[in-house]
Structures are given as C-alpha cells and as structure tokens.
Amino acid sequence: MKPIHTFQTNSVTTGYDQTTILHEINVAIPSNKINVIIGANACGKSTLLKTMARLLKPQSGQIVLDGKSIDKIPSKQLARTLGILPQSPIVPEGISVSDLVGRGRFPHQSIFKSWQKEDYEAVARAMEIMNITELADRNIDELSGGQRQRVWIAMALAQETDILFLDEPTTFLDIAYQVEILDMLTDLNKKYGTTIVMVLHDINLSARYADHIFALEKGKLIAEGNPTDVITSELVQQVFGLHSTVIKDPISQSPLVIPIGRYHNKETNI
CA 94 to CA 135: how far, in whole Å? Predict the structure, then answer.
C-alpha cells in the first residue's frame, strides 16, 4: 500500500494573468482516498487541480506536501510523489503505446542512470492494470478515445506516484468507457492505496465513486465531505442552478441527482 501523505492548500488564491479565479482556498486532501472536485463550468475546478499539481503558481498562499511547500521541492523529486493527467494531453506523432507509457518513467531517470529492470516492470505493470498490454506495439493514433485515455492513465501509473491528479479523465467518452475508466481508477485506489484527486463533470458519477467531494462555486469552496453529506438538492441548486431531487442510488446507495427542469416541474404547470 502507498504511504500516507499530508497534502493541503493554505489560503490559496490563484488565476491567470491579472484575473483571479480561486479565492482563499483551504483544502486538505484525504490520503489514500478517491477525491473528486465538482462544480459548474468555469468555477475553478481545473484551476485548482493545476495549482495543486504545481502547473500554476498561486498568486498568494501555498501548497504543502508533508509539511513542505511544494515550490521548495525539486521537480523530479516532486514528480515521484505527484502525477498529473491533464484534460487534453498532446499526443506525440507516431509514438507507440509502450513508448508513451514509458515516458512516465522520466522522473526516475538521470544522465547517470539508464533504464533498469524496475523501469520495464513498472511499464508492464501499468499497462496490465489498464488492460492495454495487447496494444503495446500499436500506434497511439490508431486507438479509440477510450483506449487512448487508458494509455494516458497507464503513463501516469508508470510514474509510480503516491498521489494522482486527473482533470476530467472521462471527458468525451461514451458512458461505458466512463464507467470503465472510473472502475479502473477505483481498482488502483483499493489495491495500491493511490490517492486519487480528479475533476469530474458528472455529479452522479462523482457521488458514486468518490470517498470525498469538494464542491466549488465561483472560485470558492462551499462544501466538502462524503457524498451523502455533500450532494443535496440545496447544493445542486446553489452550485449548478438546477432544481432537482436527490434519492438513493439503488445500485451504489450513493446520492443520485434527478433533474426536474421546467417541463417536468408540476409547480410551474408546464
């Protein structure tokens, strides 16, 4: 099992250029759990993820890993603990699946160290976890969207980090692939104890798979906790501006948001 880490943001305010997106964010990421960030479009979900992964520098405040500000940790050292899969990674032209997954081993390399047995084993293990071993020699350009996403996640797994950030890993995928990806990430968490921190667009999938949810509204953290406590009709109205009812999912027992909308709202008589 992966070790327990403390990871938190202390009064983090950040944005792009002169535009502030997040305001005084204080979060502590539960270690060895599946953590999901939810919120409406443009509320700052991806900005928070990028800031925590040190892809975006805070305007004020700091990100702290195991008691040390991450801006004080050397990049390769940090990359051996934190991994990130961005929302739209750039595919190198003509690269094979195994070569792309192998790029996840970069933090473990140096000019004095060539590939070792453990590097090959890490790549093979990552491909096995994501069920892409049979695709090893295929060109990444030949794969479907769901297959590509599994390859990208395998690359992040080959990095062998304790904490993995993913920005909307199910975007543009059919529902079957969405569930498949989230099931695989859950397997990773349950089997190895990898801390997962991801942005998800679908509130019901978030409620089903998350151990801990962070809800953002207009750049501010307004609620956090287990899905049963966080996902309420009041929160859905506040965060998404959606009239809904929340019931218990008959399969997972997690909260299930049922949108009402104007057409089915008897109160409006429409």
Answer: 14
The 10s digit of each residue's pLDDT in 114-142 is 788 899 999 999 999 999 999 999 999 99
Q: What's the start-to-end Cα distance of the chain, in Å?
A: 54
Confidence (pTM): 0.92
Which domains are assigned to the chain? 7-235 (3.40.50.300)
CB hemisphere CA count around 268 (13 angstroms): 8
- Residue 23's CB is within 10 A of a number of other CB atoms, namely 17
For the ranges 72-81, 200-209, 227-236, 247-256, which has the lowest average pLDDT?
72-81
Query: What is the distance between the alpha carbons of residues 265 and 250, in angstroms, rounded to a whole number?
Result: 23
With helix as H, strand as E and coil as C, how does 137-189 read? CCEHHHCCHHHHHHHHHHHHHHCCCCEEEEECCCCCCCHHHHHHHHHHHHHHH
